[in-house]
UniProtKB/TrEMBL annotation:
The keyword ATP-binding does not apply. CDD domains: PA_PoS1_like (cd02124), Peptidases_S8_5 (cd07489). It comes from Steccherinum ochraceum. This is Peptidase S8/S53 domain-containing protein. Belongs to the peptidase S8 family. Residues 166-574 form the Peptidase S8/S53 domain. Keywords: Hydrolase, Protease, Serine protease, Signal. Residues 1-20 form the signal peptide.
């Protein structure tokens, strides 16, 4: 039976609560879990060059444009390359993506005059919805009655009531394509339709690892994500589900950059963004990204520049909330763009099952649409003990009846839901309910089984009734049992929404929008309508609000460049919980708060800026200025006050590991003094103000406390309230440990060298570098690093490393305890004698504590230098160095370092 409920991302709900469960010791040999650091694609780079007009003496080479000059210069230096794409948008991005024969020519390319940057091409994962639920079709019997609650929460309903619908505004959607045949999306593509155009940059079969096959039609009938996104912006209201897009009179263009499955690469994102700019989109929206922490990826840089020209670019903050702070996604980290967080809806539409045989209230089950079960079926419980911890984790006993005619009741805990359901299915059980063990009532990952969660009390009741011999049956009404369940986390930031700020203290995310349990369109062959959750759903909401803004204020660049500030200053502050006295949620996960579209678009008061970036203690910016402008017709009086938000304790105490989300909050707040606390602004006038911040005292700097909050600007008539959000770190970023040197994850101290049989190497070892006889560097980053270097050095190098000096090394260190010639002198980094570089990466994200491909980095080593030259046979060591955040790359003492044991290179002679 095809299940109606499944999810792609809620495996989180079954993760054991224990932090830092060790990975399998040979986890790094599992190719599917191996990651090239930062998701870089081997040998592919995006080279940015200066506009031709910027290049002095540009005629000398006789090359008419920047691209030809670049290729000429590459050939002159004997760099083997193939051009994959050319980018030519003067003022935003000029350059090319190239595949190099030898990745290590990258260094040379950076030295070519006129080359501004060489960045790796990054693999960007497919948009990852938190859960998906497909409606069977427009005749689905039970529809959620309040599909517009998201509009009510944000004031979009009031704008719609005034006929503000985004007419005349153009939005480009970079996603999996759109099913433009969908009647609710206009049923076609081209001039005169809602979807006015588009392009498919990749083709159905593109996975991110193969060659894209572009075609003119962005039709998507195989994935569906982009169709869901498009409906959130543009669904026409005349549909049986009564949903409508935020800006359903806007014109949409579909840039398809994902195939049916898999990832895309950021050179394709850049190409699509630049096409969107040339095609005159007012807004570009991207419900995609990969966890990063830095602002420097090419797609981030290009998005930011496009935002600077006055277009609005909205980008998902990411669904990595469980992985802790400093982990927002790129390109969402684009400095000038709008990174969007997700808020849980206040009411979730769930279904009730009817209880027969005993008197009991209907049982609410976590499904938006009724289970496809017509019969009233008796229950069977896999354990009569309602406190059993590992119910149905093992195959069910032989005494178990054929379960095909039963609703099986199982308790949550220990193993995955799918494992329990597989055991039930082995006894022919097809419909099951899993009762909660206190972990919370939410969507769960049940694979393709017909199953979902019920609450603990209901489960205990059913088990006890069954145990006492009652005949209890359940039925699943196919209509009329939808029920507005008050979501306990409703109105709060979704647990999956990623935490910022960026590694260098930029304010991400910017603003939140509803992203949980959103009903929207799906491709017709995939069911036409469905529910999804994720920052992917919140992002098009802000794109829609942006269209309403442009629709009202006109399309001028000044409207675009000030949009983020407007949304941030008018947003609604979000609490960290529904418990009285708990602090406001950290700005590092809510941004300025939940967007208030009505206030943003109708207010006459303009507060600038929207963000105070206080930075860390070493670069603290305590004095901040802001202005309040009155564009209205009457004088307004305001008072200033401070609403601190919870201080996010980003590391686990006593470790260098990030605290998992929800990041714990403390009430050690910053304090603020204002230049004045009340003032009046007359029509047309601007009041200038200052705020002087003091970082929280008594916060434990070793756990990197992120303090944040809001400067409230409330009108004394009680009608208007605005705020400027601030974020700072009560610690110095340079003190944050970057490289994991513990044995927590693999049972051996990291970094470490592994052999291809999955064991770690201790002590000296020789390698032939033939077949699988090579070492692999296994390492983890606890914090992002701006620069990671791996060099080959003399086995007797005189250096004092900072990480994990093993006893075998002591003799080396003793006879030559390292001192830099003059540690205070600049350029100490270059004084460390190396035999040659093996690799170097810039702006690497940190790792997570989950073994899902983000948990560690591994690099298989070859007997070649970075430039491809073979390393001659002999004895060496490897030297790993990672620059600390805000560190100076010329100073050795700003790096963490690790020296390997002696490695013998013993390649057979050719
Ligand atoms: C949709 O709206 C119509 C008209 O207001 C109403 O009769 C109908 O019950 C609504 N349908 C749902 C599913 O809410
Ligand atoms: C659903 O069940 C809950 C809990 O028993 C009950 O409060 C609610 O009234 C029911 N709603 C419907 C529509 O059956
Ligand atoms: C339930 O009944 C409906 C209407 O008779 C039918 O279309 C559907 O196939 C039945 N579903 C199952 C799972 O038997
Ligand atoms: C499951 O159903 C099949 C086919 O009806 C039957 O042969 C088998 O015995 C059943 N399995 C169990 C465990 O009852
Ligand atoms: C459910 O998933 C399992 C494992 O992925 C697969 O073997 C099985 O065929 C699927 N069943 C259905 C009905 O889709
Ligand atoms: C914080 O300070 C560092 C060091 O000067 C700088 O690189 C970074 O850009 C600053 N962050 C912000 C948000 O200004
Ligand atoms: C590596 O090879 C060298 C040269 O043959 C030898 O002296 C040394 O003992 C070898 N080391 C190990 C760990 O096998
Ligand atoms: C490659 O790098 C090594 C180590 O830095 C150096 O000795 C060698 O000369 C370089 N080869 C070329 C062709 O540049």
């Amino acid at each position: 039976m095809k299940s109606l409920v499944w999810s792609l991302f809620f495996t989180l709900a079954v993760a054991p609560a224990v932090f830092a469960a060790k990975f399998p010791q040979n986890a790094w040999t599992d190719a599917s879990k191996q990651t090239i650091p930062g998701n870089a694609v081997p040998n592919k780079f995006i080279v940015e060059v200066a506009d031709v007009s910027d290049i002095p003496g540009k005629r000398e080479l006789g090359a008419p444009d920047s691209h030809k000059r670049l290729y000429h210069a590459l050939r002159k230096r004997d760099v083997g390359f193939k051009v994959d794409k050319e980018f030519n948008h003067q003022g935003i991005f000029v350059g090319a993506s190239v595949t190099l024969d030898n990745a290590n020519d990258r260094k040379q390319i950076t030295q070519i005059p006129g080359v501004k940057a060489v960045r790796p091409v990054i693999l960007v994962p497919a948009p990852n919805p938190v859960n998906i639920h497909v409606v069977s079709g427009v005749d689905d019997p039970a529809l959620p009655p309040d599909s517009e609650s998201t509009h009510v929460l944000t004031g979009v309903d009031k704008l719609h009531a005034q006929g503000i619908l985004g007419q005349g505004v153009k939005i480009g959607i970079l996603d999996t394509g759109i099913d433009f045949t969908h009647p609710v999306l206009g049923g076609g593509i081209g001039p005169g339709f809602k979807i006015i155009g588009g392009f498919d940059f990749v083709g159905d079969d593109f996975t991110g690892a193969n060659t894209p096959v572009p075609d003119p039609s962005p039709l998507d009938q195989c994935n569906g994500h982009g169709t869901h996104v498009a409906g959130i912006i543009g669904a026409n209201p005349d549909n049986p589900f009564n949903i409508s897009g935020v800006a359903f009179h806007a014109s949409l263009t579909s840039y398809r950059i994902f195939g049916c499955t898999g990832s895309t690469t950021d050179d394709i994102i850049v190409e699509a963004l630049l096409r969107g700019v040339s095609e005159g989109q007012d807004i570009l929206t991207m419900s995609l990204g990969g966890s990063d922490g830095w602002t420097e990826s090419t797609a981030s840089v290009v998005s930011s520049r496009i935002s600077d020209t006055g277009k609005i670019v909205t980008i998902a903050a990411g669904n990595d909330g469980s992985k802790g702070a400093f982990y927002t996604s790129s390109p969402g980290n684009a400095i000038s763009s709008i990174s969007v967080a997700s808020l849980d809806n206040t009411v979730i539409e769930l279904q009730n099952a009817t209880v027969h045989g005993v008197v009991h209230d209907p049982i609410t089950y976590f499904a938006t649409f009724p289970f496809p079960v017509n019969d009233t079926l008796p229950i069977f419980v896999t354990s009569t003990d309602p406190a059993v911890v590992d119910d149905a984790c093992d195959p069910l006993p032989d005494s178990t009846p054929d379960l095909s005619g039963f609703i099986t009741i199982v308790r949550r805990g220990t193993c995955t839901f799918v494992q329990k359901l597989t055991n039930v299915a082995a006894k022919n059980g097809t419909v099951s309910l899993i009762y909660d063990n206190g972990s919370g009532f939410s969507a769960i990952d049940v694979g393709n089984f017909t199953s979902t969660l019920i609450q603990a009390d209901d489960g205990v009741f059913l088990v006890n009734a069954f145990a006492s011999g009652e005949t209890v049956s359940l039925s699943f009404p196919q209509s009329g049992a939808a029920f507005g369940f008050p979501d306990l986390s409703g109105g709060l930031i979704s647990s999956f929404s990623s935490f910022g700020p960026t590694n260098d203290m930029f304010f991400k995310p910017a603003v939140a929008a509803p992203g949980g349990n959103i009903l929207s369109t799906l491709p017709v062959p995939l069911g036409s309508f469905g529910i999804e959750s994720g920052t992917s759903m919140a992002t098009p909401f802000i794109a829609g609000v942006s269209a309403l803004l442009f629709g009202v204020k006109g399309h001028s660049p000044s409207v675009g460049t000030t949009a983020r500030t407007l949304f941030e200053t008018t947003a609604q502050k979000i609490s960290s919980s529904h418990t009285d006295g708990d602090p406001l949620q950290s700005v590092s996960v809510q941004g300025g708060g939940l967007v208030d579209a009505f206030t943003a678009i109708t207010t006459d008061i303009v507060v600038t800026p929207g963000e105070f970036l206080l930075n860390d203690t070493a670069h603290f910016k305590p004095l901040q200025t802001f202005t309040v402008k009155n564009n209205g017709k009457t004088a307004k009086s305001f008072k200033l006050s401070h609403s601190p938000a919870g201080t996010a304790l980003s590391l686990q105490s006593g470790t260098s590991f990030p605290a998992d989300g929800p990041v714990p909050l403390s009430t050690k707040f910053a304090t603020v003094k204002f230049s004045e606390t009340s003032f009046t602004v007359h029509p047309g006038q601007t009041q200038k103000l200052t705020a002087h911040f003091t970082a929280p005292s008594g916060a434990d700097a070793s756990i990197l406390p992120i303090f944040s909050g809001f400067i409230d600007i409330d009108s004394t008539d009680g009608l208007d309230s605005f705020h400027v959000s601030y974020v700072g770190l009560a610690a110095s970023l340079k003190d944050a440990q970057v490289v994991d040197n513990s044995d927590v994850f693999f049972g051996v101290n990291l970094p470490a060298l592994g052999a291809s049989d999955g064991s770690f190497i201790s002590g000296p070892a020789n390698f032939t570098f033939v077949g699988s006889d090579f070492p692999t560097l296994v390492m983890r980053l606890d914090f992002g690093t701006p620069k990671l270097r791996f060099d080959l050095v003399d086995p007797n190098i005189k250096i004092k490393t900072t990480l994990n000096q093993r006893s075998e090394q002591t003799h080396v260190l003793e006879k030559s305890v390292f001192t830099f010639p003059n540690a205070a002198q600049a350029g100490t980094f270059s004084q460390v004698k190396i035999l040659g570089p093996l690799f170097e990466f810039d702006f690497l994200p940190r790792n997570s504590d989950v073994n899902d491909g983000s948990g560690f980095n591994s690099f298989g080593l070859t007997n070649t230098f970075a430039n491809g030259t073979t390393i001659s046979n002999g004895s060496f060591r490897f030297l790993l160095r990672a620059l600390k955040v805000t560190g100076d790359p010329t100073k050795e003492e700003d790096f963490e370092s690790w020296l390997s044991d002696v490695v013998g290179v013993q390649a057979p002679s050719p």
